[in-house]
Write a structure and sequence with these properties.
Layout (H helix, E strand, L loop, with lengths): L1 H8 L2 H21 L6 H20 L2 H22 L5 H20 L15 H17 L2 H17 L1 H5 L1 H8 L1 H18 L2 H15 L1
Length: about 210
């Protein structure tokens, strides 16, 4: 394991440069997302609002975790995979651009946001606030894992020794934090859902169990 951690540490330049690239592309995507007739904007809105958020709202914590994890890890594995054909930087820029458009779409969709629970409603509300904070803490593992995946994809593109050990490194250094981050995101989103949605999910689960 330490061998792979040392290999990842040697990719620090690619990670920093990749972080700058994805951040710049995200800013560009944010401004491009103002055009609601843009085909990419419409596609991302459909995926976020009609697919992802619909699935997240209807599922249990485990279901939300799996949905978020599969979506995110597929994107990151694509960045690494495209490094083998010298397209990792292009993929990184496209992902960043799409992230910017997605942020604009969410900003223009009030129904997409979740209302955080207030801590003024007694022990139950305080418990929910605590779970939201815990979920956000785990969710913060996601940005460094994304940057590590970008650096790995660029390293695959530039160094043969990295390309030979990329997938074990991916499984050891990127998959676990992304899974924890997905669990954290699913936790805080679940606590911010309207209680009617949560109770509806519980009733559906109970019905299936019967």
């Amino acid at each position: 394991m330490w061998e792979y951690l040392n290999l990842l540490r040697g990719l620090w330049f690619y990670m920093l440069a990749g972080a700058a690239l994805i951040l710049s592309a995200t800013v560009c995507g944010w401004f491009a997302g103002r055009n609601t007739s843009f085909a990419l904007t419409r596609s991302i809105r459909w995926w976020l609002i009609d697919v992802m958020l619909a699935l997240i709202r209807r599922r249990s914590w485990i279901g939300r975790t799996v949905t978020i994890f599969v979506n995110n890890i597929t994107i990151l594995s694509g960045i690494v995979l495209l490094g083998y054909v010298n397209l990792s930087l292009v993929a990184t820029a496209l992902v960043g651009f799409a992230m910017g458009v997605a942020l604009r779409v969410l900003g223009n969709s009030p129904d997409a946001f979740f209302a955080p629970p207030s801590g003024d409603g007694g022990p139950e509300a305080a418990r929910r606030v605590g779970k939201v904070r815990l979920g956000i803490a785990f969710n913060l593992l996601e940005p460094p894992a994304i940057i590590a995946a970008i650096g790995l994809g660029w390293g695959v593109q530039e160094h043969a020794d990295v390309s030979e050990r990329a997938w074990p490194l991916f499984m050891i250094c990127i998959v676990p934090p992304m899974l924890l981050a997905a669990g954290g995101e699913a936790l805080w989103i679940g606590e911010c859902l309207p209680r009617s949605d949560v109770m509806g999910n519980n009733r559906n689960s109970a019905t299936r169990n019967v």
